[in-house]
Amino acid sequence: MRAAAVACANVALSKYWGKRPGRFNVPAVPSLSVTLDGLSTTTCVAFDETLVADELWFDGVAAADEPTRRASELLDRVRDAASVSARARVDTHNDFPTASGLASSASGFAALALAALTAAGRDASREEVSRVARRSSASAARSVFGGFVELPGGLGPDATDEQADEACVARQVASAAALPLRMLVCVTTEGEKAVGSTSGMRETSERSPYYGAWLDVAPRLHAEMMSALERADLPVLGELAERSALAMHASALAAGVAYVSGVTLSLLGAVQALRRGGTGVWATMDAGPHLKAIVDAKDADAVASELGAMPGVLRVIHAKPGPVARVLPFDEAIAVARGGLS
Ligand code: DP6
Hints:
Shape: globular
Number of helices: 11
Largest sheet: 8 strands, mixed
Strand content: 15-25%
Oligomer: single chain
Bound molecules: ligand DP6
Helix content: 40-55%
Order of helices and strands: EEEEHEHHHEHEEHHHHEEHEEH
CATH topology of the largest domain: Ribosomal Protein S5, domain 2
Number of strands: 12
Structural class: alpha+beta
CATH architecture of the largest domain: 2-Layer Sandwich
């Protein structure tokens, strides 16, 4: 009744922002992401009949109520699927800042889904792991897979919630080796973000005059990006990824949801200036102030030193397309997850 798993973060090239109305946390628009090597979450789940409630620990320190509640919701889904009643202790470790727009919820819920289903004795397919993760956080559905991953958008209003849930399954669309892409994560704060993505997208859908425009453009950018990926055309893919991020942030900003900081905008200016100078580099940002530069592998070092020298950049993480989520030996993982503290 115990198991451990590791999953890597992912960054969306075409963004998921907004949900299909109804249940099961189905996105309103399709997204395409790249799973990132080296930004990973290691999670251990131990079901234990003696526990009265689920427990969540980060590096051996008890987590706050809200993350514990979200972990417990996922565990309820696993308990239902596997007919298990015991509560669980979850120990988890991120090797990058938690909840600051670095996609820790994606790797976190992917690792939790895989570890919990395995611990519950359920021989789950990757699709099932991904669906369990998606209902907690849609971007997590993509972190179950490696390389380049597509998560479809929701079906139209004629479909039932159950049909939309069934149809919304992430899949790998290209291997990690498909493109010589590197992602340079320019870390601009180690703190937690003020507005989480769930409430940020809710506020956008309720208040942004540009939400309709976003719903219109996002699937088109996504379709163009899918064919650029098929052709292994990094310049077109990069250009479209930057447009997707800017359209998402513009729609959010019009609702008063501002994730970008002054540093993010300076970095965006620097990326665009590098591009005018002939370097293949494009920007993307998620629900936080970090800028992620998409760059050809051959230019990664030069671009990283340029962006890393800008004021307000704390460090630059070099990431390349990464692997599928996988089960780990429990004893090895628990040492990592408890960080030697507990
Ligand atoms: C900007 O997956 O965190 O990173 O499903 O409400 O948990 P919930 O949202 P989440 O949103 C991710 C938003 C994004 C874009 C993306 O990853 O596609």
